[in-house]
Amino acid sequence: MIDVRRGIDRYPGGDPDSGITTRHAFSFGRFYDPDNLRFGPVLACNEEHLAPGAGFEEHPHSHTEIVTWVVGGELTHKGSTGEATEVRPGDVQHFGAGSGARHVERNDGTSPLCFVQTWLAPLEPGGEPSYRLVRGLPDGTPYEVPAAGARLHVRRPAAGEHIPVPAAPRVYLHVVRGDLRLDGAELGPGDSARITGEEGLEAVAGSPGELLIWELPA
């Protein structure tokens, strides 16, 4: 089964007056949709746009694995686990909230910041908070999120390239850049597909692009 969701249908959020614009793929905050709460362990996939000087001041999380992919600009992150980092395009940031942690996310640069952030439910709640930053994740190199039983594949296909879709119980595919064809459907930036129980599936890039492909448990 392939369930295509369009970027234009995402729930609007953030605080535009403060320089924050968010597009939510799942039920979030004041946009409650009981039919769109999660997909496997995926609780949220947010597209965040922060103007220079804007950001999310210190706030708490718990029982959530938060993975951030910067599309453009530079994200300043400070967490209660002691880290203070700048996250750039090509980096993967993984903030495991465990039984409770706090962090700050800001655009302290002079250029607009855009990032995609995925929240995943852990297999077991609780535990110690954790932080990891991988600089320059190579194309096709998976990033493991064992606490959620998930694996992230970042692909940057050339035009015409075929991208195999993992034969996992569930797969969540998000288009960052470019356009592609998936089982007859055309997808563009911001679009996503929720894939269940498919084998031998391929996406075909219509232009150079960038994809986030989550391999998920049942």
UniProtKB/TrEMBL annotation:
- List the InterPro entries hit by this protein, alphabetically: Pirin, Pirin_N_dom, Quercetinase_C, RmlC-like_jellyroll, RmlC_Cupin_sf
Instruction: Kindly indicate where the leader peptide sits in this chain.
Output: none
Question: So which domain of life are we looking at?
Answer: Bacteria
Q: Which family does it belong to?
A: Belongs to the pirin family.
Q: What's this protein's name?
A: Pirin family protein
The cross-references to Pfam families, in alphabetical order and at most eight, read: Pirin, Pirin_C_2
Q: Which residues form the Quercetin 2,3-dioxygenase C-terminal cupin domain?
A: 150-216
Pirin N-terminal domain: from which residue to which, for each copy?
19-120
Q: Which organism is it from?
A: Streptomyces toxytricini (Actinomyces toxytricini)
